[in-house]
């Protein structure tokens, strides 16, 4: 469902994207080509800053936002999800936040007030709160990263995790095409 926010902003969705009918996309949201938005995802850009302004939530091309993901932003701050990125089931991305290109964020993870560098892998049940992650960083399952965390205690992304992330992007790209074809048949 696409709907306006209280400021009257409507989402802008590429005709080459697929948004599941159960998903809610509200307000100043931009969804680019070949993006997959799964069932029950909520992407909501509706809060303003003290000046009454808000930045968009931008989902760049070839990205997949899976089932039950929530993307929102505090006080009108920007949220950008990069190209070829996978946000897995029931994760929360809360702005201000930037998730760069070719990132994988695993099931039930939370990212808030952070920049996640290119090629990062955040495994399942993780929290990244208030700390930026450098390029190609790997966050093991059930890790909580916040201000003061020693990032040097965690190794770089193993090659097999990057390959897995790429396979998820590819599978969801195929889903975009398949679901759009089905929608055109109805």
From TrEMBL:
Could you tell me the superkingdom of the organism this chain comes from?
Bacteria
Which InterPro entries did the record assign? Gamma-CA (IPR052265), Hexapep (IPR001451), Trimer_LpxA-like_sf (IPR011004)
Q: Which SUPFAM superfamilies does this UniProt record tie to the protein?
A: Trimeric LpxA-like enzymes (SSF51161)
In Pfam terms, one family for this protein is: Hexapep
Q: What Gene3D superfamilies is this protein classified in?
A: Hexapeptide repeat proteins
Q: What is this protein called?
A: Carnitine operon protein CaiE
Q: Which gene encodes it?
A: caiE_1
């Amino acid at each position: 469902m696409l709907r306006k926010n209280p400021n009257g902003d409507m989402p802008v969705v590429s005709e080459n994207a697929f948004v599941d009918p159960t998903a809610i996309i509200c307000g100043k949201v931009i969804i680019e080509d070949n993006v997959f938005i799964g069932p029950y995802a909520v992407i909501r850009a509706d809060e303003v800053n003290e000046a009454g302004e808000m930045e968009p939530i931008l989902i760049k091309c070839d990205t997949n936002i899976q089932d039950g993901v929530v993307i929102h932003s505090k006080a009108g701050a920007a949220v950008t999800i990069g190209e070829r990125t996978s946000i897995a089931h029931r994760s929360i991305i809360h702005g201000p936040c930037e998730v760069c290109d070719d990132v994988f964020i695993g099931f039930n993870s939370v990212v808030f007030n952070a920049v996640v560098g290119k090629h990062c892998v955040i495994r399942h049940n993780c929290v990244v709160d208030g700390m930026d992650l450098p390029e190609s960083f790997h966050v093991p399952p059930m890790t909580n990263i916040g201000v003061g965390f020693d990032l040097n205690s965690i190794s770089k992304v193993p090659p097999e995790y990057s390959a897995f992330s790429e396979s998820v992007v590819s599978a969801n790209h195929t889903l975009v095409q398949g679901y759009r074809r089905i929608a055109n048949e109805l």
